[in-house]
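seq:
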Amino acid sequence: MKKIFCLVLVVALVLSSVVFPRPAEAASIYPNFVRMKTDRDWKDFIKSLKATKVGSKEGEEVEVSLKPSGNIENERVNGNLLIQRGQVGRDIVEVKSSDPETLSATIVDKSTIRLKRGIGTNSKVSISIKYKLAWKFDIRFGSGIVPNYQYYTENSKNYSPFETDYNEAIEMKIPLGFILARNAKYVLGEKWNTASRSRMMVSATDADGSPVNYSDSRVGATIPDELSNKIKNGRIDANIDSPVGLFFNSLGGRVESPGKATSTYGNAVILRGLETQSGVESKRDAAGAFALIEENGSPKIIATSGAVNDNDKIHSFFSGKFFVETALYSMNNINDLSLTDQSPTKMITANGDEKKQDFLDRWGSSRAMSVNYGDVFKAKEAEGKIGYTQASNYTSLDGYQQPKEIFFEVTKNGYKPLAINQLSSKKISVTQKDSQSSIAQQLQNTIDTKGNSNITIEKFSEYPDVDTAGEKTAKVLVSQTLSSGKKVSLD
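struct:
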C-alpha cells in the first residue's frame, strides 16, 4: 500500500511541473493576450485623443480617459490552460509632450491624461504615451483542479515581476491664429502709424477662424531701431529700407510674419548742398526734402530730412552767408498773384553753417504745413542744387535758366515747376524820343517765352529812358496761367 501511494505522488509531481508551465514561463504568453483583450478600448482612447479639440486660449484644459477593460471568466488561452477568473488592463505610466509651452500633458491617474493649452505657437504637437500591460489571473489546467497561480506586474508569491512597457505617439493639431505680412512702400512725410502700417498686412485669422483687422489691438509690428530713428513727429523723416515683422496675439498664441518697409521721395523738392559725410561724398540732401503729400483729401508740405536724417551743417563753405530759402505763396482767394510785390505766406532761410535739422524745424508746426492745390512754393539756393521728384522719379531742372530760384505750382500730381522767372529777354531797337505807345508796339519782342503757351507778356512796367542814346534797360511784366486757372505775375 505504501508503494502505490508513492507512485501516484510522483506522477502528480511530473504533471504539475512538466505539463503545466511554470508561472514565469506561462507569463510570457500573456502580454499579447492582454493586449488583444484591451485593444478595442485602447483604440477608442487613441481615437478620442486625436479627435480632442485642444483649447485655443492659454490655460484651457481637457481630460481624456481610457475605459476600464472588462473581467475574464473561463477563457481558454492555450491547450488545456484556462483562465478561470481574470482582470486585464493597460495602465498609463508616463506621458510627454514635444512642446509643453504649446500643449502640456500630465497623468491624472492610470487611465486619464490631462492636456493644457500654453502660450506656444506650434501648430502640431506630438504626445508620447507610455503604458504598461497589467493582469491578474486565476488559472486552471484541464478539467482537474490545480493550485491557483496569480501573475502580476509586481512581485507575487516570490516570483520576479514581469513588466511589459509600450510607447505610442500621437500628433495633435493645435488651433493657432494666422497672420500674413507683405512688403509695403511709403513716401517721405507720410505718417507712420497703425493706419499706414495696415497696408503691410495681407490677412489675419483668429484660432476660431474669425477674420481679424489690423486695427485689432492684438495685432502689432516689430519695428527695429534703424527704422524708428528715421521717424520724426510721427512721420517718415528719412528714407527707410528696413524689415518690419507683424505679430498677432491670437486666441491660440502669438503668431508672426516677416515683412519689409521701404520709402521713396514721392513728390518732393530736394535741396542739396555740401553732400559729403565724414569726408565721403554721398547724397544726404543737405537742406532736406520738402515732401508734398495728401492726407484726408487735403495737401500738405512736410519738411523732411530726405536721404539721411543727419544734423550736419548745410554747407560749411557758406559760413555766415545765405545759402537756402523756401517759401509758400497762398493762392487762397487770390486770382492774380504778383510774385514781385506779394509777401510769402511762409518763408524760412538759413546760412550755410546752420544745421540741417534747425532749418527744417522752422517749417510750420511739427514741420507740416497745410496748403491748397494751386499754391506756389519757392526754393532758392546759393549754389542752385535744386531738384524735384514726381512719383519718386527724379526730374532734372538743367534746362532752367535760373536754377538758383525756382517757383513750383502745388498740384494734385505733385510739384510743377513754373517758367515765369526762367525766361530770357531779347533786345529791341527804339529811336531817341520814341513815345511809350510806340515802344509798346514792340512789347511782344522783348521776352523769349520758350514756347510756353501759358506765358503772357502783359506790359512794360518800366519803360526805357530814351532821352539819351545808348543801351538802356526796361522792365516787362509777364504772367503765367496755373493749372488751377489762376495767374501769377513777375517783372
